[in-house]
């Protein structure tokens, strides 16, 4: 590894930094989605039972105690329950439209890293071969193989490093998108159910 970094030129250090950013984003989003995804059916059943007792304060307190997307949608529906079905539906749509971008935050950064890492590797490769041809130009046909090896090592190391960052970044991005889609699906199902619950309650 130290040899790879030493022989990769300055481009490989850029790739290393992007890999660290990608890892940090992936772990932060993974932990966030783990917190955001709850057992929505169980939560909704609890809220339903409380609302049946007309205990609005307790229902809102339960929502506040779990500050993640599904409880926030449920709280929105409860707060707008007296405004009619259409108003509740509109409030839920607005709340959902606010939640989705928050869930998708930073995913574009991970996707960008997955796309540019191979290009950075290609840049390092080109710069490596530039060094090779410069050595050939300066030394002619008598250029020592050691002069050529440095540029070739830089080219190969940068290519490998770019791919090594891009592949897991892209896989991680797709995995996180799947987690987001699961949470959004839960939000849609809960929105439909809580809409029926609060409108029946009223």
Short key terms for the protein model shown above:
202 residues, 88% helix
Task: Outline the structure in words.
It contains 8 helices and no strands. With 202 residues, the protein is mainly α. α3 packs parallel to α8 (145-201) and α4 runs antiparallel to α5. The longest helix has 57 residues, at 145-201.
Topology:
Blueprint: H1 2-7, H2 9-36, H3 40-52, H4 56-65, H5 69-79, H6 85-104, H7 107-139, H8 145-201
Strand content: under 5%
What low-confidence regions span 5 or more consecutive residues with pLDDT below 50? Answer: none
- Using only CA atoms, what is the Rg? 27 Å
Succession of helices and strands: HHHHHHHH
Portion of residues within helices: over 70%
Note the total helix count. 8
- Rounded mean pLDDT is 87
The major sheet is characterized as: none
- Quickly give the structural class: mainly alpha
* Strands, total number: 0
Through-space gap between termini: 66 Å
- Given the C-alpha coordinates, what overall shape results? rod-shaped
């Amino acid at each position: 590894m130290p040899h790879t970094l030493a022989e990769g030129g300055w481009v490989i250090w850029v790739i290393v930094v992007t890999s660290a950013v990608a890892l940090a984003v992936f772990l932060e989003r993974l932990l966030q989605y783990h917190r955001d995804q709850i057992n929505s059916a169980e939560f909704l059943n609890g809220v339903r039972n409380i609302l049946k007792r007309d205990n609005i304060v307790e229902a809102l307190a339960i929502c506040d105690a779990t500050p993640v997307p599904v409880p926030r949608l449920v709280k929105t529906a409860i707060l707008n329950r007296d405004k009619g079905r259409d108003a509740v539906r509109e409030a839920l749509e607005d709340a959902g439209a606010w939640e989705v971008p928050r869930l998708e935050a930073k995913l574009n950064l991970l996707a960008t890293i997955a796309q540019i890492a191979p290009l950075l590797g290609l840049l390092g490769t080109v710069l490596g071969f530039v060094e090779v041809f410069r050595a050939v130009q300066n030394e002619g046909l008598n250029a020592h193989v050691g002069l050529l090896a440095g540029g070739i090592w830089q080219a190969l190391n940068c290519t490998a490093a770019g791919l090594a960052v891009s592949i897991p970044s892209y896989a991680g991005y797709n995995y996180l998108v799947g987690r987001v889609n699961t949470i959004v699906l839960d939000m849609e199902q809960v929105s439909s159910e809580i809409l029926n619950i609060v409108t029946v309650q009223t």
